[in-house]
Glycolate oxidase iron-sulfur subunit
Amino acid sequence: MADVDATRGTGPTPPGPRQTADGGHNRSHEVDALRAAETAGRPGAFDDHHPPRADLVSDCVHCGFCLTTCPTYVLWGEEMDSPRGRIHLIAQGLEGEPLTDSMVTHFDQCLGCMACVTACPSGVRYDRLIEDTRAQVERRHPRGPRDRALRAAIFALFPYPRRLRLLRGPLWAYQKSGLRSLVARTGLLERLAPTLATLDSLAPRLRSVPRPPRRVAARGTRRAVVGMLTGCVQSAFFPDVNSATVRILSAEGCEVLIPPGQGCCGALSVHNGRRAEAERFARRLIDTFEQTGMDWFVVNAAGCGSSLKEYGELLADDPAYAARAVAFAAKVRDLAELLDELGPVAERHPLPVTVAYHDACHLGHAQGIREQPRALLRGIPGLELREIADPEICCGSAGVWNVLNPEPAAELGDRKAAAVLATGASLLVTANPGCLMQVAAAIRRQNGKIALAHTAQVLDASLRNLGVAALTND
């Protein structure tokens, strides 16, 4: 087969499924053909270590329901930058096609937002397909020097909370000195170093918040013992979200355990094909929390939560950790998910504020958690909840996708910011640090006026009777 050209609009439309005499899809023949290709020993795109599965590929019937929810297809209208187009490329690889630069480009351009998984009427596991494909790409495809250097820098920094915290001092000085505003006015950074310009635009305003103690007792009757992930970006740049999370859990009758030695959960690594690295992070986190006696493991970052719930799949090949990973994953709960399961006991005080709620992709699409955070917000007296148009379209953050792809990420961010501002709400609420940074940067570009907060901060303000000013005064 000819290689698919990466130029916009020139990729072939993937063929539809074969038809039987009665018009049905003869998918068993597709599965047999793809499985035969997998075992034929051809030097195709994938090796035999967790290649994308042929039976999952065959589940796609090319119906197109995914197209309108895919951010890159919405931006470019290119078939090979849609989920079904990428599945077609995966099928080519299983049939013996090599892993070419253009094929890798289309895989790289996927945000991994999983909106297509929600939209698919056939239940296609695109999340599993793209994750296995990216792991193959990282092992088998030689990247150019610039791409290698950028990815090496990202993954030497972002998954390490201590390294990120070392940036707080210089970043605080940069923001307070007025140098940031001066650099922004000149526009030089965008022209000379677009990656640095993206990082600069994403950096939140830093606040000094004491680190939470190792153990926080439940207030009133103890209802559960919970371990808590402090995270990487969350702990370095949004420590106030972690503090709010601890206070909420304690107020709702949870004893909170926060071991100081915890590190990255591996989400950024696994979502970018760095499987071995993600496995190391997962093992360490399991070792840290396994003997704490926790009932639940609470997460307040959507991307982390979706990966933690898949530890059983990540470590399935490790005989020392496979069963332990399954048991650990069964205890993982998003903050809103756990609070919804436990039910409220702490008093909610009024917060007369209009809120636009943004579904973080790895909370809504990957974990299916949509109603729980809305129920928490609606349970606050005086709070009015407003929905955002086109909620299924990603804001463009997608882990580190916005750093690797700053221009299309900014375009997606601007689309999301416009939809947020159109609600007329005074506060945007979401449950992921990447989304908070991405949308905040886009709103600044549009000179918009809306405050931003994590779900935990809103509920914390209500429980402590702090009033709206605690959320809207920046």
About this structure: Residues 147-202 form one domain.
